[in-house]
Please model this.
Amino acid sequence: MSHEYLSLQEALTAVCGDGTIAEKRAVSGGDINRAYALRLPGGQTVFMKENSRANRDFFRAEAEGLAAMKQTGAVRTPAVLATGIDGDRSFLLLSYIASGRSGPHTMEQLSYDLAAMHAADPAAFLPAAGEAAEDEGPGRYGFLHDNYIGSGFQLNTPKESWVAFFRECRLRPQFARAGGYFDTADKKKIERLLDHLDRYLAEPAHPSMLHGDFWAGNYMVDRDGVPWLIDPAAYVGHAEADIAMTELFGGFDQAFYGAYKEAAGLSADYRDRRDLYNLYHLLNHLNLFGGSYLSSVLAILHRYA
Model:
């Protein structure tokens, strides 16, 4: 994907050799976007996400995240074919993955793949020293550009410390957006938590490429029972943050956790930090979807502060 195409027809012609569509079928998988399977005259099918022109940056960020995860060589992701604009809409074209059912070893494979991605060298996904902003400099945690967690903006300014990154680029911006939900006592606890976050979070042995939004809706299984990662909010961080999110909305199959511990290990005190990682996602849901998430946010805040 070298540039943003100026029409869907231009994009299809460039990447598939034919700009016409034989069939356009609505499919699941769009979430905040509309999603379609496009069957082309030659029989090829591609997957398209569509949103308003104003939200075109969603697709730039998703394409960058998918490409970064794929570049680790550890996980399967749909191929990014094109992004572009077409009238009042923006679009993202991906290779089409026909969905199937999990096999007896699908969850173990998902876990092994994730562990391999977490072990890969993530240096290529951070600005080099000469590319970093003058007031920030390069860092070990962050990403090449800012992106999105769902439809919420996600700050990825590089930091040398994981604790500093999680404080300044994850918790503090979400708390600031949600400020109207908190009373004076809550706000004092928020500042106390942020000021003393290093009491609870640990620096990892090494930075890891993360999916960033890793719940059960953001992987899929193909017709061979093979897992694929989709819909990332990618950045370089602590591997524990990906594992924590798998436990937020019901959890994964126990085979997943057993395989991850076998492949990568998990600190004995990981559970002491898990809810702090998930505080970020609960705050994001509070900001996107409203007050039904406030009690969960406050429970974690009061536990740590």
User: Anything to note?
Assistant: The mean pLDDT is 94. The chain has two domains: 4-95, 106-304. The CA atoms of residues 100 and 224 lie 7 Å apart. The chain is about 40% helix and 15% strand.
